[in-house]
Amino acid sequence: MAVTIREVASAAGVSVSTVSRAFTAPDQVQPATRQRILDAAAELGYSANPAARSLRGGSTGTLGLIVPDIANPFFPPIIKAMQARARRLGYTVLVADSDEREADELAVIAAVSKRVDGLILWASTLTEERLQELAGRMPLVVVNRHVPGIPEVRISLSAGIAQAAELLKAYGHRRCVFVNASRAELSRGKSIQESFEALDLSLHELGPYEPRFETGVHAATLVAAHDATAVIAHNDLVALGVLHQMANLGVSVPRDVSVIGIDDTLLASVSTPGLTTIRIDPEEIATRAGDLLIETIAGSTGGSTKGRDGTSPLVEIGSRLIPRASTGPAPTH
Fold first, then answer.
1. 174-187: pLDDT as tens digits
2. Is there a contact between 98 and 128 (Cβ–Cβ < 8 Å)?
3. What's 275's DSSP letter?
4. For the chain, the helix, strand and coil percentages under 3-state DSSP, each to the nearest 5
5. CA-to-CA distance for 99 and 230, rounded, in angstroms?
6. Separation between Cα atoms, residue 135 and residue 118, nearest integer Å
């Protein structure tokens, strides 16, 4: 079985991206480190494909990132961090927006695929068959979307959601609403449902809608119909829409209703009241997703990125609750 670049990295005690640079951009690696990598590669019998790398003139030196909504304040910090990480590794980043529509995503992929060395697709709306076909043509990483055979970055909300459920339980809440704003990320709603049920919290799901501010405005008017005392929204943008409309309706947050978002964007900390939210670290996502794509690109020229058990790499990013002023005791009336 062919030795992978990951095994070389482990043997040399460095990252996969450092191994990749040692072969593709040796001037960016300390001589002693590069020699250690070359020694490990020789001992393991790893041989990067010189023919493929000789096509560097046909290589773009660019990573593609396709996100659902570039206007969502969650994404700019990730894009910025990924650009910084890619720049240190000798790459640039090309960013595009799919607007969470399959036709638009296909059109964007067709437009950018020849201009990048590999793609990161965030919460892709494409079918498994289309994604597997695309992965057969170019290095591909998916974020928040599981497809067998494709390297994946998974944002695990389990810890943050469990903490949110525990907070609401401690505050005496019993009836909650989840505003679902994604058809692609089905695991998010399931994880929330399981965490709330484990604490005997009633959870009614609204949607799925689009993950926009207007969705929260719409959902806020439905919360009262379910006699809910707490709302957890798909993301901060939706949660801010809920806060806005609650104020318009004369509903006090958190006296009458508690509101929780997901992402911990800048807007969450400056809203009135400050938004309790589940934090996902944008720099960690950017670093891990970028490195995984570079590893996948290197694997396509120097051996498979799959492990010895035949599975594709999986990187998991954790989460945690950031309590702020939008959550409080359940109303007693």
1. 999 999 987 666 66
2. no
3. P
4. 50, 15, 35
5. 29
6. 9
Nearest-angstrom CA–CA distance, 41 and 3:
9
The answer to whether the CB of 136 falls within 8 A of the CB of 125 is no
CB 327 within 8 A of CB 268: no
Structure tokens at 39: 């020694």
Residue in the structure block whose two tokens are 């589940």: 278
- What DSSP letter does each residue of 285-301 carry, written as one string? HHHHHHHHHHHHHHHHH
Provide the token pair at 68: 């659902």
Q: For residue 103, what are the contacts with CB-CB under 8 A and spacing of at least 6?
A: none
Task: Report the distance separating Cα 71 and Cα 10, nearest Å.
Answer: 39
Residue 132 CA to residue 314 CA, distance in Å, equals 16
At 203-257, the pLDDT tens digits run: 999 988 888 899 999 999 898 788 899 999 999 999 999 999 999 999 999 999 9
Any idea which residue has 């508690």 for tokens? 258
What is this structure's pTM? 0.78
Q: From the CB of residue 99, how many other CB atoms can be counted at a distance below 10 Å? A: 15
Cα 23 from Cα 175, distance rounded (Å) = 57
Please give the C-alpha separations between residue 190 and each of 61, 194, 220, 224, in angstroms, as whole numbers: 39, 6, 21, 23
Distance, in Å, from the CA atom of 270 to the CA atom of 184, rounded to the nearest integer, reads 29
Mean pLDDT of 277-282: 95
Least confident of 40-49, 149-158, 268-277: 40-49
Q: Cα(173)–Cα(86) distance, rounded to whole angstroms?
A: 45
Q: Are 93 and 297 in contact (CB under 8 A)?
A: no
Q: How far is CA 53 from CA 48, 85, 94, 129, in A?
A: 8, 22, 21, 29
